[in-house]
Each structure stands twice: as C-alpha cells, then as structure tokens.
Amino acid sequence: MKSRHISRRRFALMAGTAGAVPLGIVSLDLAGTEPLTAAAVVRRIQTALGGDWPSAGPDGFKAGDPSTVVKGIATTAMATMDVLQQAVQANTNLIVTYEPTFYSRADGAVDSPPGRGSAAGGNDPVIKAKREFIEKNGLVVFRLRDHWQARKENDRVTGLAGALGWRARAVSDKAGNGNAVYEIPAATAEATVAVIRSKLKLRAGLRVVGDRNAIIRRVLLIPGSMTATTLWLRYSEVDMIVAGEVREWENTHYAADIFTSGEKRALVTIGRVVSEDPGMAVCAEWLKTIVKEVPAKWIGVGDPYWRPA
Amino acid sequence: MTAREVVELIKKNASTPWNERSTRDTFKAGDPDVTVKGIATTMMVTFDMLKRANAAGMNMVITHEDTFWNDRDDTKDLARNPLFKLKTEYILKNDMVIWRDHDNMHASTPDYTVVGELRSAGIPVGTGGSDHVTMRPGILTIPETTLGELAAQVKRSSGARALRCVGDPTARVSKILVGPGYATPRMTPEVDVIIGGEQQEADGDFDNVEYVIDAVSLGMPKGVIMLGHVISEQAGMKDFGDWLRTFLHDIPIRFVPAEEPYW
Question: Domains of chain B: which residue ranges?
C-alpha cells in the first residue's frame, strides 16, 4: 500500500502546515499507546483506503490542529456552521467532510494564487468567524472526497439507496457488481417522487422534469453531479434517474426533449449535498471499523432550499 | 432574405464590435442559406419550442442557449442518439435553421437576458432605464424588505414554479446582485441577496449556498434566490426580438418562450 509510510514532508503538506508540523506525531502514533490524534486517525483512513494522497488534491486537513486529541468523529456531506455546532454538542471534535468547508474548490486557502478558485480568504468575515469557531472549540476539519468516492463499495450510491428504502432492490450488472440501477415497486412518477420527498425530507431542492404519469420501475441513482454524457447514455435504459444536480441547459434540456418526444421517463434532481448525505452516514459506520477508541457519528445537512408559497 | 443575411444584419447593428471567435454564436442546424419566413426568438430551443415555432410559421430560431444538450453543442457523441436524430430530422424536414446568440448577447449593452431577468424579478432598473444594463449590473438598492417578501414577489413576477431560495426569510434586505443563467454572481459581505439562474451547489468557484447558510448561522443574514436557468434568461428574448424589429422590417418576428421544464 503506497500510503502506508507517508513521508513527514508529504504529511506536513497534506496538513497544510509545512515546516511547522510537530515531528513527534508520527512516532507517537506508531507507539500506539499515546492519545489518539486527528493526524493518527487520518493516517488510519489513508492506510485503509490506500492510493496516493497528493497535497494538491481536495482531500486533506482544512482547519484546526492535526495534533489535537480526538474525542469523537463526526462525518458529514458538508461541514456547515450548523453541522459544526451539532458536532460540538455531540462531543465530537474531528469532522470528516465530503464537500468544502470554506465555500469553494479552493476551500478558503488564504495562500491560493489570485484568480484561481475563490478569492474569499482570511479576510472574509464569514470565513474569519467560522475559523474562530473551529479554533475556539478545538475542532479539526478533514476533507475526504476523492478517496471516499473511489471505494469499490460505492457507498454513495448504496447509502442513497438505503435512505430511499431500496438497498435490497439493486439490479446487478453482468459482472455481478452493483451498477446503481434499482428495481422498485411499480408506481407513477408522481407517486415515486412523493416517496423520495418524504424519505429524504426534501423541500424546494426537489425538482422534476418529465412525465408525471410514467410508470416507474427501474431507477438509476447518481449522487452528486451528473454529466450530460451520462444522461445521454443511460436515461433510456431506466424509467427514472435520481441525481444530485445537473446543468439545467444541458441535462434538464435533454430530459425535457425526451418528454416531448413521447418517452415516458422522469429526471429527478434532489440537490447535490442532500444526495451525498446518506453516503457519509455509511462513512461513519465504516470509520467505526477502523477507529474503535472513540465514537463516530453522522450529522446530516438536509435540504437547504425553501420556496415561498 | 436568408438566415445568413439576417445574422450579418445582427452583427452590423450590434452595440459592440462582434466577437467572431465565439464558438457558441454559430449556426447549429439547418441550412443558413434557407429563405427566412419568420424569426422565433427564444431562451432555449427545446424540441417543444421548436414545434411551436414551426406551427407559427417561423423557420429561423435564434436561441440564447444550446440546441444539442451541451454547452459547446458538440455532437460527436450524439451521432447514434435517437433523440438527436429526431430533433435534427425535424429541423431539416421543416426547412428550419437554428442560430445561437449567447456570448455576444452577454457582451452587449444592454444584455437583454439581464433586462428580462430584472423585469422577471420585479426589480426596477433605476433612473438609467434598461438601456444601460450589462451582464454585471452591479449592486442594486431596493426599498428594504424581508428576504421572504422579496422571494414571494420574485415568484409572482417571474412565474417560476421551481424557484429555490436559501437563507433566513426574516432577514432585512436591500442590496441585490443579479446575474443571468449559470453566471450566478458571487456573494460578498456588501450584498444581501443574490438572484441568479442556477449554480453548481458545492465545490465550485464559489459556493453561494453554503456561504449563505453559514452567514445566517453567524448572524449575518443573507439570501440566495435561484430562478432556474430558463426563467432567468427567458423574458429578455422578447426584448431582443423588439430590437431585431428596429432593422428587420419585412420579416415576422415572434418571441416563442421555452417552457419552464420543472413540475
């Protein structure tokens, strides 16, 4: 496993504290008798998931001190202030988040080159106040995206299927792997959407294009963002696709045209983060199998959208 | 007059020098040398819109957005796609021609998509009138209201069924920043409400949704109102058609809106 022995330099880069990381962390962890630090938990995650962990990738420490002793772990699709407050109340201080903490792909890195990603850095009042909250409460935030979604278990899909009550209904592909298609009790698109709305507690984030009277039996689940080519290739093999988000002038346009052409299908978008919520619940369960000293729990983000009457 | 000649007149009458390098602003389907019987302007040439344009006798469609479901209108992966075949055959069979005006429209003053977006949002442009509306009109100050009241007003004015809002409905707001389509602007400390079409929800250039959720949690009440891409840019294609009439006198011109796609 490539990541078993991460060099101190590589680790320091990952931690975003190059040159300043306490050299003691690695040897303390190897001794196995010292308190469990965030850095030690992350090394276990890296070892268990394997692969390379480049410092330029999205996965890594985003805030807090990696040498902090971990009381408990909270997993979440997005480390919002609300999630962080719940984490503190639950006596957890290592937050494992799938999406960024500081509002962009660049994740608030104050030293990101100008013009690349978000310009919002250390001087933005929201970022400043969030960092203060994290420091005051001794929290550590680690982003786990690329390596989590690379797992062959496909937890994001099975997690979403589980939240919808469909986990046992997976249609296996020829290789015997789950291919994210589920065969559910036949019902109209309208009735199926009502089930999705109620199971995932959706509000205005739920939007549907297509035929509301279509009979839905085969459903493809695409948590996160769906590309245009995925829709072109796979829409006609199922009755419904449930995706996190799409580009409206690309995928929504295609689904609208499919409807006009008379095909009886529906495309349901539920919101990117909501679609990723259940996968991070699976992540908490998985963490319990590699970290037994402290509790791990999932904190959901929920549908952030509302609509006036 | 041919479709090609119509486009040449548009270029000649444009408010700014025409950007010929745009790969978006090109003919997408049909024969550019076909005789134009009528022009339909629209935000997006959906199959449904195409049929209504044809029924109205308009064989040239000027669309702001794509024809073949991807921003570049790249068709190499669509050669065997049945829907692609259906849509292109419909266009050819009915002597229709599709031309897109996207990049040059956003570079123009006024940017008609934003003119329409402001009207849809029920926000008066101000003393300058709509003649000076650019793609980035800057911060607009409206009489102080709540986010909830503003959202209700925007829903009424735009007619958007699938409007999505984020933030505290009781927040007092007056500083508004609008942007068309996917060009939903970035929230900043000076702005109370962003009004846009659509945006990647997270892990993008700037994640307004999470920023606003957190700003509210931290006592800095703000909001986002997302109209949906079609609704945000739709209304202005009527104004664009009115502008076409100022130099195209002998061709019928009609605004044929794309339907809001969502239930």
Answer: 3-106, 112-232
Superfamily of segment(s) B3-106: NIF3 (NGG1p interacting factor 3)-like (3.40.1390.30)
Q: What are the start-end ranges of the H helices in A80-216?
A: 81-89, 125-136, 146-149, 155-163, 189-199
Please state whether the predicted TM-score (pTM) of the whole model is above 0.80. Answer: yes
Q: How far is A225 from chain B (nearest CA, A)?
A: 8
pLDDT < 50 positions in chain B:
127-130
Of A208, A257, A306, the CB nearest to B263: A208
Q: What residue in A sits closest to B149 (Cα-Cα)?
A: A308
Rounded CA separation A155/A161 (Å): 9
| Mutation to test the B interface, candidates A146, A253, A275, most B Cβ within 10 Å | A253
- The CATH code that applies to domain A8-150 is 3.40.1390.30
Cβ-defined contact of B206 to A255 (cutoff 8 Å): no
Q: From the list B66, B148, B209, which residue is nearest A249 (CB)?
A: B66
Which of B45, B87, B210 best tests the A interface by mutation, with the highest count of A CBs <10 A?
B210
A231 neighbourhood in chain B, CB within 8 Å: 69
Query: One fold for both B3-106 and B112-232?
Result: yes
What pLDDT, in 10s, does the model give residues B130-179?
457 888 888 899 999 999 999 999 999 999 999 999 999 999 999 999 99
- Which fold is adopted by the domain A155-273? 3.40.1390
Average of pLDDT values for A296-302?
A: 98
ipTM attached to this prediction: 0.97
Which CATH number is B112-232 given? 3.40.1390
Report the percentage of chain A scoring pLDDT > 70: 83
Q: pLDDT by residue (tens digit) across A226-243?
A: 999 999 999 999 999 999
CATH 3.40.1390.30-classified regions of chain A: 8-150, 155-273
